[in-house]
Amino acid sequence: MKTEISCSRRKRDFLRGIPSHCWCGNPVSVFVSKTTRNPFQRFHRCEVARMREGEAHLFKWLDEALVEEVSMVEARQTTVEEDLEAMITAEFSGTNGTREVRQNTGCVAAI
């Protein structure tokens, strides 16, 4: 049971955001829907799926992929901000409130 949970979690994480390739390893391209239900809506699709209609290859609407990608970037930014705040707090944690000089504190960058 535990392996099923970890496999589904990996699959879910693999499918988040803007896809670059399908689970089968083939590249993903952007196409435009020509249906009456979703006219001109763009989507990501595995290139193999075009040739093999019956197989379950990657399909994802472009707008959903962009929303997921933005939320992932926001989560990363929050983590970086929290790490930076923790570094600042740790640096000013001297007994008399003065700034301690620390070696190898590293470099922090945000997108």
Describe this structure as you would to a colleague.
With 111 residues, the chain is α+β, with helices and mostly antiparallel strands. Helix content is 43%, strand content 12%. It contains three helices and three strands. A three-stranded antiparallel sheet has the order 1-2-3. The longest helix is centred in the last third of the chain and has 30 residues, at 62-91. Residues 1-10 have low confidence and may be disordered.
Brief write-up:
Helices cover 43% and strands 12% of the residues. The protein has 111 residues and is an alpha+beta fold.
Q: What descriptive keywords fit this protein?
A:
alpha+beta; 12% strand; elongated
Topology (SSEs and partners):
Blueprint: H1 2-14, E1 28-32, E2 42-46, H2 47-51, E3 59-61, H3 62-91
Antiparallel strand pairs: 1-2, 2-3
Largest sheet: 3 strands, antiparallel
Principal-axes shape call: elongated
- Overall mean pLDDT stands at 76
Distance between the termini: 38 Å
How much is the radius of gyration in Å?
22 Å
What share of residues is helical? Answer: 40-55%
Q: Give, in spatial order, the strands making up the sheet with the most strands.
A: 1-2-3
Oligomer state equals single chain
- Residue runs with pLDDT of under 50 for 5 or more positions: 1-10
Number of strands: 3
Question: Which H/E pattern describes the elements?
Answer: HEEHEH
The total count of helices amounts to 3
What proportion strand? 5-15%
SSE class: alpha+beta
